[in-house]
Amino acid sequence: MHHKSQVLLLGTLIVLSAPMVCRAQGPTQTGFWVAGDMGYGSATIRTDASSHSSGGLSMGLEGGYAFNSTFAVGLRLSGCSLEASNLNDPTKGESLSLFSAMVRVFPVTGQGFFLRGGAGSLRYTNNHPMEFDGNGIGLFLGAGYEFPVSNHLRLAPVVDYTWGKLDDVNNALATIHDRRSKFISFGVSLKFM
């Protein structure tokens, strides 16, 4: 738990200190863009009877259309690998992912600070014996600060928080209700416009 607090503090400091470190200009172009991010994520899966947390590699891929320098819409696929799959051991592997429609807003004109958020389809996979996959609805909110690398390339520290509800499990092996998930990630994003 102490490690998660340190990661949360570090990520928050990176995002909040970015405007003081560099007065980078926000995007001045309109049109299509794509971005990918990678970092560390920590997820918690809760049910009516249990809870467990784990952390691992987080990744995201998004793309969309910027209507102007302050507003863009798009699609985002993001997730966290809580335990890597193993072809030699089919009982290994756990992940959480969200495919969502999203918006990006640059609230301060001429600055690289942005907020992003969206809603979509949540997917939980778990290959462990007597564990159950699930689908549901998820939401996410995030923030970052873009630094221009070139006219078409931006680099940004980012933080995202995802939460959602998974469907219940009702079968001969188990009955599990009120399955919820939350996931926080910190990383670096690279955007091409």
Description:
This protein is mainly beta and about 190 residues long. A hairpin with a 7-residue loop joins strand 5 and strand 6. It has one helix and eleven strands; from the N terminus they run αβββββββββββ. The protein has an eight-stranded antiparallel beta barrel with strand order 1-2-3-4-5-6-8-11. It has a two-stranded antiparallel ribbon with strand order 9-10. The chain has one helix spanning about 1-20, and strands at about 30-45, 50-65, 70-85, 95-105, 115-125, 135-145, 145-150, 155-165, 170, 175, 180-190. The longest helix has 20 residues, at about 1-20.
Q: What layout of secondary structure does this protein have?
A:
Layout: H1 2-21, E1 31-46, E2 51-66, E3 71-83, E4 94-105, E5 113-126, E6 134-145, E7 147-148, E8 153-166, E9 169-170, E10 175-176, E11 179-192
Low-confidence blocks of residues: 6-10, 13-27
Distance between the termini: 38 Å
Largest sheet: 8 strands, antiparallel, barrel
Taken as a percent bin, the fraction of beta residues is over 45%
Using the alpha-carbon principal axes, give the shape. Answer: elongated
The average pLDDT is: 82
Q: What would you report as the Rg, rounded to the nearest angstrom?
A: 18 Å
Brief summary of the model shown:
This protein has 193 residues and is mostly beta strands. The chain has one helix at residues 2-21, and strands at 31-46, 51-66, 71-83, 94-105, 113-126, 134-145, 147-148, 153-166, 169-170, 175-176, 179-192.
Label this structure with key terms.
193 residues, mainly beta, elongated
